[in-house]
Amino acid sequence: MTRNTKYTGSYTIGTGEKSVVVENRIVLAPMAGITNKAFLTTAKEFGAGLVISEMISDKGIEFRNKKTLDMLDFVGVPHPLSIQIFGGNSETLVEAAKFVEKNTTADIIDINMGCPVPKVTKNDAGSRLLLDPDKVYDVVSKVSKAISIPLSVKIRLGWDNDHLFAVENAKAIEAGGGALVAMHTRTKAAAYTGHAKDNWDWLGKLTDAVKIPVIGNGDIKGPEDAKQMIDQTGVTAVMMGRAALGNPWVLNRTRHFFESGELLPEPTINEKIQIAKIHLERLVELHGEHLATLEFRSQASYYLKGAKGAAKVKVAVNQAESPQEVFSIFEDFLNPSLTVFDSF
């Protein structure tokens, strides 16, 4: 079978009038607590062809939990947009998917079958589903029939090294009406340890086994890794997650590398701080000043990674109680006439 070796150009998810055309081969991975409206908007501006929301509970949607419903606000995020839901019961997943299609701006609905976190898997959700390809088929079949927009599924390689059902699960997803499968090449047992790159060959097995688009995820740290994954496995597109934290430039640098073969320079700390400030401003619009300041604390460390004097800045940001304080800290950090942070 001939595998994909395209780095540029569009691809299509689904069939018919509700099919979705994605203009490039770069996908932003769903990340819990991170890929909200603020982050997705920035990722789209930096060149991601497709962005996927953080996972949203089917139970939260069922009971119309306010926090859950607020998480579904993606108005203004450039299309195409995928909203990810999770749960362990096909009936509640069906109702959640129908609600998302009717009440949000989603172009695609994604089901999380990869989360390794115990509080998710103990409820038969996330990667727990990977142990039973028949259940995977049942869930995908019921949800895909209940909605008119494309359904995708994100999986892992398997539950552990003794239960590697990636190919069987991908086939079940396709047979059930899934329009795309994305796979992270670690097992549930490995969580985020080890080397996902060692298992990339499994992505090739998926591209050989199914006709729907396959997206590869795991240990893509930059443009050269992304190209290597396509060369090695034939995936339709690459999914980048942790590499984009505090560094959305990696999305544009990868797109540019695919298009031209040229590696653009890494962003300067000044450039990173300017985007960090925009990120915080968007969090304020989304959550209000207090919650935005608290949420941004974890994000700030990514933007500051590797910068001289960053440790002291992180401490200061973690003590800040308002966006204005954070902005002031950043301005002082970038001011070469000040030595409070031992900046350059």
Automatic annotation (TrEMBL):
Catalytic activity: a 5,6-dihydrouridine in tRNA + NADP(+) = a uridine in tRNA + NADPH + H(+); a 5,6-dihydrouridine in tRNA + NAD(+) = a uridine in tRNA + NADH + H(+)
GO MF annotations, alphabetized: flavin adenine dinucleotide binding; tRNA binding; tRNA dihydrouridine synthase activity
Domain DUS-like FMN-binding, first and last residues per copy: 28-326
Keywords recorded for this protein, A-Z: Flavoprotein, FMN, NADP, Nucleotide-binding, Oxidoreductase, RNA-binding, tRNA processing, tRNA-binding
CDD domains the UniProt entry points to: DUS_like_FMN
A Pfam cross-reference name: Dus
UniProt xrefs under InterPro entries: Aldolase_TIM, DUS-like_FMN-bd, DUS_fam, DusB-like, tRNA-dHydroUridine_Synthase_C, tRNA_hU_synthase_CS
PROSITE patterns: UPF0034
Domain of life: Bacteria
UniProt cofactor(s): FMN
Keyword Flavoprotein found: yes
Active site: 115
NCBIfam families per UniProt: nifR3_yhdG
Family classification: Belongs to the dus family.
The protein's name in its UniProt record: tRNA-dihydrouridine synthase
Phylogenetic classification of the source organism: Bacteria, Bacillati, Bacillota, Bacilli, Lactobacillales
